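Dear colleague,

As promised, here are the two records you asked about, laid out in our usual form so they can be pasted straight into your sheet.

NAME FIELD: protein one
SEQUENCE, THEN STRUCTURE:
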Amino acid sequence: MRTGFAALMLILPLHAAAETVFIEASRDATLVEDPSGSLANGSGPALFVGRTNARENSVRRALVYFDIAEAVPRDARVEGVWLTLSMTPSNPAPRRIRLHRLLSAWGEGPSSASGGGGDASAPGDATWIHTFYDEAFWVKPGGHFVARASASLEVGTFDSYTWQSSPKMVADVRMWLARPHRNFGWILIGDETTPQNAKSFASREQPDVSLRPLLEVHYRRRPR
């Protein structure tokens, strides 16, 4: 009996301990609604999401990309994903912001604006109509992304906000780990119906490192 028990123990899989990695954004940018693609914000200190004031009355969408394959072992099984963004001073009214998986590569160009108005587009920028200014284009203006949201969260006053792990977020990251060439990140979309509701979040260029976008990933290594 002891011999049989020992043999049985040899074939039981070992349960790997859960591990956690925190990943900083490798790229981020704001799409500034402009039919000509002449405005962008690739390297500014903030990301903008929602609709601006009544004078401009145009939409902002944020793009964010994390290099999953660089930070997570290829043989890992992702079990949980949390995205944290830090809101910087902007409209405090509660608004729901959704994450959608992007379907096209895009660039973080040198354009830089501290406010939501944007800067003149420069080569390599993602704009409302360009994936890479001024030679490559989105399938349609405003970004090419999966229609169904991967997660959503109500954002209000100045604070840090975490989009909690969801089956869709986990599925996104698992796919990006298995197929890095299909990792284009997420687009954040807010209230695009009423004016003057845009939210501002610290970007990866924010001088305060603690406020920059952060992705927390929990995973287990697959038994060998």
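NAME FIELD: protein two
SEQUENCE, THEN STRUCTURE:
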Amino acid sequence: MNAIKLSRHLSLVLRHEPSKIGLVLDSQGWAQVSELLSALAAHGKRTTRKQLEQIVETNDKQRFSFSDDGTKIRANQGHSIDIELGLSPETPPEKLFHGTATRFLGSIMKQGLVAGSRQYVHLSESQETAIQVGSRHGQSMILAVDSAKMDREGMDFFLSENGVWLTERVPVECLEEQGLEDDES
């Protein structure tokens, strides 16, 4: 299985549907590496430990990590299943960014950013990352998030292992349109 297909399949089973291959994650989203490899093989996706290690090391978004002892693997964030990542609240930078497609802007400016099917809203420290995220869904719109105000108002922020800031929601009053992708050039 090539690396891109394997990474996408790992995202599916470690973030959304472990049952698709008969895998059971613990409460923090970890899967035993040996069980994952067996389950993948049983579903026609034979994978080696070395291939898993390459995905963890080279994934451009650092979506996965191994436990300290290397016996478990999990997705770092983006889960639609209920897991506890074990992250502690952290003080965010004053401003964070969220990339979205322009077609979603009307809804966002009415209700704010909500996690939807995921556990958290994902935010980045850089506009460039937000542009990349938003462009996956169409023409990008970058939203600046007044994370300092949210923090002062007692809203929690968490920093995932791969540098993505997570929060449960972002109220409309803490959002500011930064412009379209074309305007950023």
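A couple of things worth noting about protein two: The helical segments are 3-16, 33-42, 49-58, 105-111, 127-135, 147-152. Confidence is low (pLDDT under 50) at residues 181-185.

Best,
R.
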